Backbone:
């Protein structure tokens, strides 16, 4: 399916815009972003694709009329030809904004509140650097952040557990690592579902293992 990405954008009254964080959804478009594993920063974008998405997200804010504050712009990319479309735009601080703030250390809500009363990004100090640089500097991180949703279908007997555009998770965990593999492994352990990471669900010596895996992937709730 089409790949899904998010951009967290902050704009001030002087039209200064920064990208706080790029987020990539592990699941393809069609699954609610709250139910999808997400990774920040985006891992599979080329620099050209990122710059196009960056410019497009800022253009969306200007077209919608978001004069100050933070916004979340969601894109979908066709992996076959690179076609890019805007699928959603939230002109406010959202759930993804909270993730971006935790991932980068950039206080989006705090900055948005100050921008709303007339400050500009270059007038505000950057909390990440202890005030040594202005908030107009885009955050740059040398680690990977993974968010995994937490489901609790066992408490809702009869509920359809097939993931769609309707959010069904009841919470989420976030983990930080030097690599995507490390952060993903930490997040799986943090779910507190008894998993210590990528635990095998079937015995590798079981001749029916492949059949079981195929059935679990095909049948919802298997």
Residues:
């Amino acid at each position: 399916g089409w790949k899904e990405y998010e951009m967290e954008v902050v704009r001030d009254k002087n039209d200064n815009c920064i990208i706080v964080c790029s987020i990539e959804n592990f699941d393809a478009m069609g699954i609610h972003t709250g139910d999808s594993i997400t990774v920040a920063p985006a891992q599979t974008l080329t620099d050209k694709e990122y710059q196009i998405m960056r410019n497009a997200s800022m253009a969306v804010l200007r077209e919608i009329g978001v004069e100050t504050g933070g916004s979340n712009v969601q894109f979908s990319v066709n992996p076959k030809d690179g076609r890019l479309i805007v699928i959603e735009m939230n002109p406010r601080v959202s759930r993804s904004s909270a993730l971006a703030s935790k991932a980068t250390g950039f206080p989006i809500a705090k900055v948005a509140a100050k921008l709303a009363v007339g400050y500009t990004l270059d007038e505000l100090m950057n909390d990440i650097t202890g005030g040594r640089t202005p908030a107009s500097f885009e955050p740059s991180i040398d680690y990977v952040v993974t968010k995994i949703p937490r489901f609790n279908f066992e408490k809702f007997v009869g509920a359809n557990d097939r993931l769609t555009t309707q959010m069904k998770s009841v919470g989420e965990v976030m983990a930080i690592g030097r690599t995507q593999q490390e952060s993903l492994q930490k997040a799986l352990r943090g779910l507190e579902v008894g998993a210590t990471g990528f635990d095998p669900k079937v015995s590798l010596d079981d001749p029916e293992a492949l059949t079981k895996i195929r059935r679990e992937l095909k049948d919802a709730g298997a």
Remarks:
- Residues 31 and 183 are 22 Å apart (CA to CA).
- Strands lie at 3-11, 17-25, 38-40, 69-77, 84-90, 144-150, 171-177.
- Residues 47-64 form the longest helix (18 residues).
